[in-house]
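pipeline/complex-builder :: batch 7 item 3
reading input block
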Amino acid sequence: MQDKTRRDFLLESGAVSAALMIPGSTVFALQEKGGEKAGEEVEVSPTEDLMREHGLLNRVLLIYEECGRRLAGKDEFDPKVLTDAAGIIRNFIENYHEKLEEDHLFPRFEKAHKLTELVAVLRQQHQAGRRVTAQILQLAAARSASDRQKLEAAITAFIRMYRPHEAREDTILFPAFRTLIGEKEYDALGDRFEDREHELFGKSGFEGQVENVAGIERELGIYDLAQFTPR
Ligand SMILES: [Fe+2]
Ligand SMILES: [Fe+2]
């Protein structure tokens, strides 16, 4: 079912042609619109799915960095940019991505008595992150100097925690997860993640969230990747 919805989205967006789609949990990598190369076959495993979501989280952290920089430099920006970015963190990262980690990854480590100290810290950080997001949402439109300072501090604290958090998951937790779970269960979990994604975010799922983030980047003038290349 979830494959059907993802397939539909890919087809509607014109990213791939029907002939390239095959049944099962296999999807083809999105090719750039107008690109010359055909889409390549890609298996989306549960941890690869989670790592892509970390990529999305990283792009929101870049947005947060830009907002923090402007707050420090007393540079104006539309508060809606920050509200939208924090909304993606709340809905997609906290209520979906982290929920998957809490429901399907962490308990398996705890049961196997593996990496339990790391998992305890990761759990605490999810909770701390939720508190900071609430603060960012509450202060996003702040006008007074003291509130803007608090907002900047909250943004900085969020970035400071999530960079090492996601890096530790990518390099330690996710590779170890593969050794805790059989192949069949691993594949089935990938399907469950996809189902949940489309249940919560409709047909466009992850790809729709990427589009939303790109829209915020454009708004802030940080979308063009080439601007970050040192001259
Ligand atoms: Fe996490
Ligand atoms: Fe994560």
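note: The two ends are 48 Å apart (CA to CA).
queue -> next item
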